[in-house]
């Protein structure tokens, strides 16, 4: 009796592990029989608890590798996105940030600031993504990450033309979607 129970339990364990393979077709199934898994919608958490707070004074690196601070961008609204190459939701939202930068023109500056270490080459992400409106800012010491204090990537913070925080979104976002369009309406109209 025990060998039969052990055999049944072993079969259940193997079947359970096999089904955790992410919905890929099994050897005896056709790809058409298994629906393709759609990535979950990026719905970051809106946070207005820091509204009115001044931009952090911490420096990061501009595309030429020179130190810059957010104060250099005062005079127009600035959307600051902290991301990293190893962060799936970060990379996934980058094309929509590129779309916002294209639509915004001179009305809004979109800064994407990599939190990768200095050893990580972010150029392949740009090449693969084909970003035409974003620039490669870097924060290898994670100064902005510590200043924003969310503990999560991606984090995106909107500052008004005077350098005061309007809101932040913690987590990924479809920046071309209806929710983002509502959040950004007064800034890119």
Automatic annotation (TrEMBL):
Q: What is its main location?
A: other
- Where in or outside the cell is it found? Cell envelope
Q: Which UniProt keywords apply?
A: Cytochrome c-type biogenesis, Disulfide bond, Redox-active center
Q: Where is each Thioredoxin domain found?
A: 49-189
- What this protein is called in its record is TlpA family protein disulfide reductase
Which species expresses this protein natively?
Sphingomonas tabacisoli
């Amino acid at each position: 009796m025990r060998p039969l129970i052990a055999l049944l339990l072993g079969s259940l364990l193997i079947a359970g592990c096999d089904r955790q393979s992410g919905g890929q077709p099994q050897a005896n199934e056709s790809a058409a029989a298994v629906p393709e898994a759609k990535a979950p919608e990026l719905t970051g958490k809106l946070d207005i608890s820091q509204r009115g707070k001044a931009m952090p004074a911490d420096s990061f690196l501009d595309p030429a590798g020179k130190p810059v601070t957010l104060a250099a961008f005062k005079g127009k609204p600035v959307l600051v996105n902290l991301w990293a190459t190893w962060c799936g939701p970060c990379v996934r939202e980058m094309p929509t940030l590129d779309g916002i930068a294209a639509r915004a023109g001179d009305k809004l500056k979109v800064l994407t600031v990599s939190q990768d270490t200095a050893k990580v080459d972010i150029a392949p992400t740009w090449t693969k993504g084909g970003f035409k409106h974003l620039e490669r800012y870097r924060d290898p010491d994670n100064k902005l990450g510590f200043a924003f204090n969310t503990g999560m990537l991606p984090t995106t913070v909107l500052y008004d033309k005077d350098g005061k925080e309007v809101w932040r979104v913690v987590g990924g976002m479809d920046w071309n979607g209806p929710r983002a369009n509502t959040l950004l309406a007064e800034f890119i109209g």
